Automatic annotation (TrEMBL):
InterPro entries: TM_pro_TauE-like, TSUP. Pfam families: TauE. Keywords: Cell membrane, Membrane, Transmembrane, Transmembrane helix, Transport. It comes from the Bacteria. Belongs to the 4-toluene sulfonate uptake permease (TSUP) (TC 2.A.102) family. The keyword Transmembrane helix applies. It is found in: Cell membrane. The chain crosses the membrane at residues 12-36, 68-87, 94-112, 124-152, 164-186, 192-212, 224-242. It is a multi-pass membrane protein. This is Probable membrane transporter protein. It comes from Clostridium beijerinckii (Clostridium MP). Its main location: membrane.
Amino acid sequence: MQNIYLFISTLFAYFTKGITGFGNTLVMGSLFSFVVSNRLTTPVDLLFGIPTNTYMAWKERKNISLKIVIPLSLMLLAGIVPGTLLLKAGSDRILKCILGVVIVGIAVEMLTRKPSKIQNKKASIIFLIVIGVISGILAGLYGIGALLVAYVSRTTENKNEFRGNICCIFLVDNIFRFFLYLFTGILTKEALIMALCLSPAVIIGMIIGVKVDSKMEEETVKKSVIALLIASGMILFLKSFFS
């Protein structure tokens, strides 16, 4: 039953990514954390992230802006190392509590966010650094780049441009963390085996997601994902806090 649950969770996570270009880590991280350690979930999702982000970045390569990708990637990398050290040293119970709060906070931000009429706003350098470094810490801990998602969504003009830039940034993060996880011992044989077993779910989820994206309103899917994230984040926090 646990294997079936993990397979379905992975399929849904990458179905979400196929539609939006992100969200796989939030969905997979929250659902997996009920039955699997974060130290296993994060490297498994990383192994899936490299090929899927490569595919989506290549698909939208004409819409990628180096002015967005390069500075955000540098700030992201600066935060990944301390985030990875926290992942290696932290208590799993504490990590799950933090993850629950982070998931709910990000979901609420997505729910209450108002679309901006002014695109490509110039943010301050300090704001850019804060967003990038915090995103890096979250990426090192859980692989989550949702703060970057919020930032890039405000600095791109359309869905294709957003996907191209965010997946390109995530790919830089994925490659860096792959070698960092190898060096720190977080990327284990167990993670490799689990990734291999669940890879069909990733392929199926991506194929379905890409097809549904052309026929379904993105706002409907977005609200469903937000509802799932809020519910799972709250349950995860309460379960970990009182256990």
